[in-house]
Amino acid sequence: MSDAHELPFYLLFGSLMAILLAGVFFMQLTKQREFEVEAQAQALADDLARTCFSTLPGQQPTLNLPSRIAGSSYELEVDENRSTFIIRITGGTGTGESYWGMANVELRVENASFAPGEKIYFMRSGDAVLISASPIEAPPENILPTPSGEPPEFYYFARENQREATALIAAYFDVSQDIDAYEWENSDSILVRAGSILLRVRGYENGENVGLVDSAWVISNVENYAGELTSATPSPSVENAWQSGWLYSPSQALSYLRSRTWRRTSDNSIVTIPSDALVRAAAATTNVSTYPTWRVEWENYVIHYQTGPWWYAENTPGFVFQSEPELEALV
Fold first, then answer.
1. Is residue 24 packed enough to be buried (19+ CB in 10 Å), middle (13-18) or exposed (0-12)?
2. Angle at the Cα of 76 (from 37 to 127), degrees rounded to 5?
3. What is the distance of C-alpha 314 from the center of its chain?
4. Gap between the Cα atoms of 15 and 17, Å rounded
5. pLDDT at residue 13 above 70?
6. pLDDT by residue (tens digit) across 198-225?
7. How far is the C-alpha of 94 from the C-alpha of 225, rounded, in Å?
8. How far is CA 115 from CA 65, 77, 87, in A?
9. 82: which residues sit within 8 A by CB, 6+ positions away?
């Protein structure tokens, strides 16, 4: 008789235990799903940042975005100001949660229509990385103009009077006015007249090797001069050489160099030339001759680049590019 009375109690107890166990199992499953969403969302944010940071010039890597994150829907946002990828859970487990991945490099978004299940594209551009939901068109190389016809008088003058030409080039791009005349003040100082403006251009000897450049006379300063030119020599037109494409400005030279992709030959690492690199006129001496150049410097790098093109009809080699450490253009 007692067993019959106790049977309902056992049934009720069993039902309660089953409900309790189901609840525990559900909570455990929910917690496990939350862990999966958190792990997968954070891993995606980190993968995006890692892919972005490791993108090299000349490459366009892609990353496939998953359709869902552990069964939950999501959206991707790129915060350009913080160089950060943000994964936001929009539906399912973890709704409202956000996960972040910092790229440690400047980001610029070209196409922000990021969609789960689609690709995201990366391309390095200078110091930044472009991010896009569609393929990125590679920027054209900044080709310097190729002049036609025979070079102007200043071209021939610079070929034979390298230091004088270097000083005149530095003075012209300092005041943006054509040079009339010049005279040596001492071994490291040239006086220049540009219309009503008188200038002193100072240079110094630099004996460090830069590739095949054995030494260089580098312009250190261009300043106003209050005296007179007592024995001035007329100068060929620097402005004519520049306007006809036979002379590059310092900004043209730097822009061109920055448009190329450079590899350091010692370890194959990619080198980016910064926009604030120091550009100075110099007369660079090799085992062949001395040439006016633009000397580009940043950190531990030095580049000597031609101040203008070499005429194709010349029967002697001209100067183009030398660097230390040795750099090689890839694209």
1. exposed
2. 125
3. 35
4. 5
5. no
6. 999 999 999 999 999 999 999 999 999 9
7. 72
8. 8, 10, 12
9. 102
Dist CA 124 CA 55 (whole Å): 6
In sequence order, the β-bridge partners of residue 204 are 218
Q: What are the residues facing 131 on neighbouring strands?
A: 109, 122
**For residue 105, what pLDDT is reported?**
86
Q: Share the mean pLDDT of the chain.
A: 88
**Which residues on neighbouring strands pair with residue 62, listed in sequence order?**
121
pLDDT bracket for residue 23 (50, 70, 90): low
CB atoms near residue 62 (< 10 Å) = 13
Greatest CA separation for the chain: 136
Cα separation, 101 vs 107, in Å, equals 12
Amino acid at 285: T
The number of beta carbons lying within 10 Å of the beta carbon of residue 8 is: 9
Condensed to tens digits (0 to 9), the pLDDT of residues 235-274 reads 999 999 999 999 999 999 998 998 887 888 998 887 889 8
Which residue is listed with tokens 């790229």? 103
> DSSP class of residue 2?
H
292 against 55, higher pLDDT:
292
Task: Select from 208, 204, 207, 214 the least CA-distant residue to 289.
Answer: 214
Weakest mean pLDDT among 9-13, 243-247, 310-314 = 9-13
As a whole number of angstroms, the distance between CA 52 and CA 122 comes to: 6
CB 245 within 8 A of CB 145: yes
| Residue 101 token pair | 């991945």
Output phi, psi for 18, to 5 deg: -65, -45
Quote the pTM value.
Answer: 0.65
Query: By CB neighbour count within 10 A (0-12 exposed, 13-18 middle, 19+ buried), where does 275 fall?
Result: exposed
Name the 3-class secondary structure at 124.
strand
- Peptide bond preceding 325: is omega within 30 degrees of 0, i.e. cis? yes
Residue 316 neighbours by CB under 8 Å, 6+ apart = 288, 289
